[in-house]
Amino acid sequence: MAPAASRECGGVSVAVDADGLIGGVRRPFVRKEGAWSFGPTGRRLWATWVDSSPGFSGSFDFIHRTGIPVLFSVGLEVNGRPVALEPGEPVWYPSRSESVHLAEGLEVEETRFITDDDCAVSVLSLTNRSGRALHVLPHIRWPRGSSWSYERFGLKVFVEGGVSGPGGRGLGPGESGRWTVACAFGLGPSEAAAALRRWLGDSAPRETHIRAYSAWFRQCPSFECSEPDMERLWAYRWYLLRRNIACNAAGLLRHPVIYEGRGAKMTLDPWDPRGWEFSQLIPFSTPMHLLEGRWHPDAAEACRGSVAALVENQRDDGIFPCVQVHSTAGWYASFVSWAVWQLHRVRPDLDWLSVVAPGLQRELDGVLRTFAREGEVLPVLRDHGRTGKEYQPGFFHSAGYPRERPDDHAAALKRVDFACYTHMNADALAAIWGALGRPEESDRCREIAWRVRRAILSEMWDAGDRFFFGVDAASGRRVPVRHVVGFDPFVAGIAGPGHLAAFDALADPGGFAAPYPVPSCERRNPAYSPVSGWMGVQIKGPHGCLWNGPTWPFANSMVLMSLAAASRAAGHSLDDLYARLFRSSTALALREGIPVLYEHYNPETGEPISQEEHYFHSTWLDPLISHVMGLSPGEKPDPVRIGLEWARLSGVDCPGHEGEAVLEGS
User: Fold this and answer.
1) Is 114 exposed, middle or buried (0-12, 13-18, 19+ CB in 10 A)?
2) Could you say which of 47, 190, 250, 495 has the lowest number of CB atoms within 10 Å?
3) Are 273 and 321 in contact (CB under 8 A)?
4) Does one domain contain both 420 and 505?
């Protein structure tokens, strides 16, 4: 086994060298020709894309998608006349971008970054390569002036820009000069001005920023193994987590929260992006964020903030809505309470738990009151979009999978996923109330969980077809369509040894055995489509969200959790199956060796269907720590073997596992 590596980034000793492991590459922004992805994000400020010209032109966002087209641009005057710069393609790093521009004997090295305190900074180093003396004067263009404001999302945003440097100066052959241009955002003029002064007054802003950015990764656990791709994806997934933490401290989002992404299914119109936004608090993805974030102290605070924001903005019926700073909208079935308990197991905090527990209980009670029939406990749902898994074919089976206007024909179903989430939340609340010394509430939730479990086993398990199926609420009959959610009862702790045959569907070519698993429904279904479409019609466009075939990292995360639980209970007899899925999920997140995650993929080709990069509604770090390395709070290590020659995990905050975890000969 290789010796433990020592990592350093920007002069900071780090557990995860994100810049070194996944930086130094070119990342075009796939939705727009000539546009580039941008790595660093601030607490509230980020770039959807940037162009290659010096300065900050592209599409910039503050708190939510805003689409500001230009913060500032940079031109040059040499020996008294303007010269054209030849832009260089930016090299992407998590912390910054690096470019080299050329202009009549001048080489312009530019480092661009967005700081944690929401300042867009360009550090320009100009070197005279001409062999003769040059007088150089940068021209900074501010489209709205260097001090301006705007109103959006019910807030007034202040913007302050400025330059530090010698103004015009002479450069002899080989000599260099440096200028720093910055543009700071804030919710008050003093906040923006203070950030601007801080960065313009720094004598080495590039180095200061890299050190500050890298410090977050110092708190990550360290993972090394025999396979470099997994080490790269380990670094990328931590970057993904950090990228999507938002500290808005405004409106309905007072706490740090974790977004589903900084991209969006929105138009790229300047100042007027339209469509569905991922840069908000979405309860469907929150459980995955809690599973990933519980292994990092700062991220764990954002996890708690997400839950607190859901509770504070809870609907009157108890349901958790999607939350932006100025509004709430929509909702999704989710297992937030279960994920809260998993967070608490790694980072116990009874005081915080006591604050959010009543809201979690209201959510469970609201689901049962709103969606379960009187005397029953399995929720009934007709709106397929509220599952977070639009256009699962089972909703349309009884109508014969209509090609036109399928939404008009959706049946009301008892869904396996929604039922399992209800069980998971009730079971977790039993544990939460028990930890808080509230036995009556604990017993009540345990009774609910038991009733849901019994109903799932009696109504949804088909012993003949050996799978868990949804139930038509009108007829009471099982809907004979295998969805990927049919594996969820294993995550929920409902399925047992007598149900292991369900996993045979993963090896069935007509089932889920696609080249790039796991498709969201079985391949033999008449509505199955590996691309975005319904019965041959692109009802949501070529990149739309449909769960009638495409492979989703969210679903793969759930199946991995199911397989790990089932394999451990069955003497690790399913480890090989787990290993194949873990490795295929890892491969999906690598494009020519460069890590990047999309919303969903073609299960036949492995190509992304969506265009939104760095999408975050799945978990990979948690399966690696919990399953592959086998760490669970207070329990003996029990790794699920995936065929690594060796692996080393250290620096994990896990009760009972404070040392180093090592695997050899896996």
Assistant:
1) buried
2) 190
3) no
4) yes
Looking at the structure, tell me whether residues 271 and 346 fall in a common domain.
Answer: yes
Strands (E), 388-466: 413-414, 461-462
Tokens of 57: 């032109």
Express each pLDDT in 421-430 by its tens digit: 999 999 999 9
Residue 167 lies in a domain: yes
CA angle, residues 210, 92, 299, in degrees to nearest 5:
55
205 and 324 together in one domain = no
Q: Report pLDDT digits (tens) over 252-274.
A: 999 999 999 997 788 999 999 99
**Which CATH number goes with the domain that contains 149?**
2.70.98
Q: Is residue 77 part of a domain?
A: yes
Confidence of residue 12 (pLDDT cuts 50, 70, 90): low
| Whole-model pTM over 0.70 | yes
98 is in which domain, residue-wise? Answer: 8-217
pLDDT in tens, 22-40: 999 999 999 999 999 999 9
In a domain, residue 612? The reply is yes
What is the C-alpha to C-alpha distance for residues 193 and 323, in angstroms, rounded to an integer? 29
pLDDT > 90: percent of the chain:
93
Give the C-alpha distances (Å, rounded to integers) separating 531 from 515, 588, 617: 14, 16, 20
- Domains in the chain, number: 2
- The upper half-sphere exposure of residue 28, i.e. CA atoms within 13 Å in the direction of its Cβ, equals 6
How far is the C-alpha of 400 from the C-alpha of 382, rounded, in Å? 16
Three-state SS for 170?
A: strand
